[in-house]
Structure formats: C-alpha cells, structure tokens
C-alpha cells in the first residue's frame, strides 16, 4: 500500500475511533439514570384549580401529545355529540422537530393503565414536569422542561390529568420510545446540555392583572422571554439582557423559512406602544393581528388565554424597558378577500404548513375532499371543529365568499396546487 494511502487510512481510522468515543460519552451522558427525588407536590382537587390545569394542559402539552390528527386512530378524538371534537393526548410522532434530532415520539397521557399514565404517582408526574426525569430515572430528552412552573400550577396540571375530563379518559394506544439520532444525541449532550435541576418548591405570584403575574406567565407558561429575546442563553440570562423582549431571536417556519421574533417592548416605533390589551388578546387567541397580518409558526395560537392573563401579560410588557430595535423581516402582504385564491393561500400563511415543503401537506389533501361548505367554514373558524387548532381563525380577514372561493380552489387542485 502506498505511503499516502496508508496515511489516509490511519487518519480515517483515527477519526472513526475518536468519533465513536465522543458518541459513546454523549450516549452515556444522555442515557444515564438519575436519582432525583420527586418534589412534594400533590394533585389539586378544587374544580377551579382542575379547570386551570386543563387550560395549562391544552396550552403546553396537548399540541405534542395529541400526535397527528388522524381519524383512523380509535379514540383519537373526544365524542363530538355534545360539542366540538377535541384531539386526545394519546401520543404520537412529534412533527416540526429538526430531522437531525431523530424520531421524537410523545407518550400517551390518557388515564389508560397499560399505555397511559394511570399507574404514575403524583410525584412521578411532578418530577417529570419540574426536573425532566421519567419514572425509570432517565432524562426525558425531547420533552420541554417546566422547571419554572409554580407549585400551584404543577398541582393544577396533575389534578386535571387525574380528573374525569373526557380529554384524558383512557385510550389504549402504544407509542414507540423516542429515538434520538446521532446528531441529536451529540447536540443534547454537548450543546443543549442535560439539565435536571428542579427546585423542590417554586413560588408564584397571586393570579391577577399585575405585572408580577404577567412576568410569571411570560417566563414560565408562554415562553415569551425565551422566544422574543435574542440569543441562546438561559432564561435567567435573558431576563438580565439589555434587549429583553426586543425580538431578533432566530427561528424557522415549518417550511424552512428563516424568520426573527418581533419586538414586544413598548417602543413607539418598533415595539407595541400603539397596541392595546384587546389587540394583544386577539393576536394571541386567534393568530391574526389588528393589522390583518397572520402570525407565523412557530409562534403558537394560545386559544386558552383568558382576559385576566392577557391583561397581566400586557401590563408586564408595558413595564419592561423600551428598546428601539427593528428586526429583520421580509415584506409581508396583507390578505385581501377578493384576491385570487392561490394568492390567498400565500398571504394567509397556508403555504407555510400546507405548501410543497410544509409538514401538513398531506392533511390538506384529505381536508380538500370534504364538502365545500364544510371546508369554507373550517377556513374561517377552525376552532369550531377543534378548539385547540393551531390554524389561525381567519374570519376577521376572510369573508364567506372568499372562504368559499378558496375552498373551491382547494377542491379543484386536490389541495396540491403549487402557488
């Protein structure tokens, strides 16, 4: 073998050995067992607290644990006889995560004894929420941690999971364990880190229309601080940042478009100085702003925010230092009802999730085969069928005639047109 060939062989061999060793260390770091005692938090039992837990659950848990909205899965929806059907948390593949992370599966959170959480103790659930540790002692790598959630809200969540609400009634549905890819394992072990810290007790301010409670919501419940403050530092560091809530954090939409979060400070030119509490509530609960522009994923539609929470958030956002910062943003076109339907498909933001590179393209093709009136009604008020739908409520920018024209276009193209 020539000298150059031998040298190349040994370099490759060395790289493989080093890479294998690094991956082995990462795997051990991610997969090890941790001896973390559960925090002393029990379930809430009062109806008001259980209702609060239900809203927290629908806001923070249902999106991932309901899996794909597939009618073929028995029990995937609640009984719609007494109202709109809701997707149940039966577990499923989590969409929208980077491909390099591997296959991310959210487990079944219904009260099923074999495949759900009926046999979990309150402590098991509290530890999972607070420290990210599963019952087997291993780190729930793909699950967001709620280490800042106050004791009362943790208790409310557990109380709801133990309740008789039809959303969490038993459904037998087996879900595979999450399988992190090589890159995902390395990223978690050496970049994101394994953080099992969790305080035994986390106090929270009284619920009310105050800046203190709004700050709690922005930090612990709705993650406004994390997404609207530039950088990849910890939440504590972001709270001390001079650009707190001034936007500029890098994100990608489901179809791969690069976007930056908006400025939420009270700056008169680049922030929210001209907005009211009602404007904020409308944007958060419908996904459509007062200017007619539609929010872009990964910004969620927070359908369960009530007036008191919206007021508290608004008071808090008014209390942070004003920062004049205009973040990068491509020109955006407002939806115009009499525009051609293929143009509405773009301006309404449908293309982000349902276009050629969107993760929900197949679902659109299925929906496009339903009766025209049903499609049009769903376009204007998706929450009427699924109260937790992440599709914006387009009724304010899409009248009945425009919705019917868009529905007809979707039917004619089988949901597969390329705008």
Task: Give a quick precis of the structure.
By secondary structure, this protein is mainly alpha-helical.
* Overall strand count: 6
Secondary-structure-based class equals: mainly alpha
Biggest sheet layout? 2 strands, antiparallel
Arithmetic mean pLDDT:
86
Described by the principal axes of the CA atoms, the overall outline is globular
What's the arrangement of strands in the largest beta sheet? 1-3
Which stretches of 5+ consecutive residues score pLDDT under 50?
A: none
User: How many structural domains in the coordinates?
Assistant: 3
* Strand residue percentage: under 5%
* Count, helices: 16
Helix content: 25-40%
In angstroms, what separates the terminal alpha carbons? 57 Å
Fold and architecture overview:
It is a single chain. The chain is mainly alpha-helical and 419 residues long. The protein folds into 3 domains: 47-192, no CATH class; 211-319, no CATH class; 341-413, Cytochrome Bc1 Complex, Chain D, domain 2. The chain is 39% helix and 3% strand. It is built from 16 helices and 6 strands. A hairpin with a 5-residue loop joins strand 5 (250-252) and strand 6. The longest helix is centred in the N-terminal third of the chain and has 29 residues, at 3-31. The chain is globular. The mean pLDDT is 86.
């Amino acid at each position: 073998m020539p000298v150059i060939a031998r040298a190349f062989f040994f370099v490759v061999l060395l790289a493989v050995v080093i890479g294998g060793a690094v991956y082995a260390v990462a795997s051990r770091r991610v997969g090890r067992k941790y001896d973390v005692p559960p925090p002393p938090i029990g379930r809430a039992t009062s109806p008001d607290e259980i209702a609060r837990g239900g809203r927290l659950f629908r806001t923070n848990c249902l999106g991932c644990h309901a899996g794909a909205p597939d009618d073929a899965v028995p029990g995937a929806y609640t009984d719609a006889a007494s109202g709109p059907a809701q997707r149940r948390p039966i577990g499923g593949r989590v969409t929208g995560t980077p491909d390099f992370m591997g296959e991310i599966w959210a487990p079944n959170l219904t009260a099923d004894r074999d495949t759900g959480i009926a046999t979990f103790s309150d402590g098991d659930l509290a530890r999972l929420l607070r420290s990210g540790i599963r019952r087997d002692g291993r780190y729930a790598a793909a699950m967001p941690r709620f280490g800042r959630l106050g004791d009362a809200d943790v208790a409310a969540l557990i109380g709801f999971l133990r309740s008789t609400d039809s959303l969490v009634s038993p459904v037998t549905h087996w879900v595979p364990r999450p399988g992190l890819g090589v890159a995902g394992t390395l990223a978690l072990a050496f970049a994101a880190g394994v953080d099992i810290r969790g305080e035994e007790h986390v106090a929270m301010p009284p619920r009310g229309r105050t800046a203190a409670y709004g700050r709690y919501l922005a930090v612990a419940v709705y993650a406004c601080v994390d997404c609207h403050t530039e950088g990849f530092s910890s939440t504590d560091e972001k709270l001390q940042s001079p650009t707190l809530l001034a936007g500029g954090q890098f994100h990608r939409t489901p179809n791969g478009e690069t976007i930056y979060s908006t400025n939420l400070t009270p700056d008169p030119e680049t922030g929210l100085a001209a907005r009211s509490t009602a404007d904020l509530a409308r944007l958060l609960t419908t996904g459509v702003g007062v200017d007619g522009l539609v929010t872009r994923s990964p910004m969620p539609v927070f359908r369960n925010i009530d007036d008191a929470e919206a007021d508290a958030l608004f008071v808090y956002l008014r209390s942070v230092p004003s920062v004049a910062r205009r973040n990068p943003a491509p020109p955006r076109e407002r939806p115009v009802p009499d525009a051609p339907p293929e143009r509405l498909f773009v301006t309404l933001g449908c293309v982000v999730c349902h276009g050629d590179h969107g993760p929900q393209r197949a679902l659109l093709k299925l929906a496009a085969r339903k009766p025209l009136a049903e499609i049009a009604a769903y376009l204007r008020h998706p929450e009427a069928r699924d109260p937790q739908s992440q599709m914006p409520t387009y009724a304010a920018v899409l009248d009945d005639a425009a919705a019917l024209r868009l529905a007809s276009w979707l039917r004619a193209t089988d949901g597969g047109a390329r705008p």
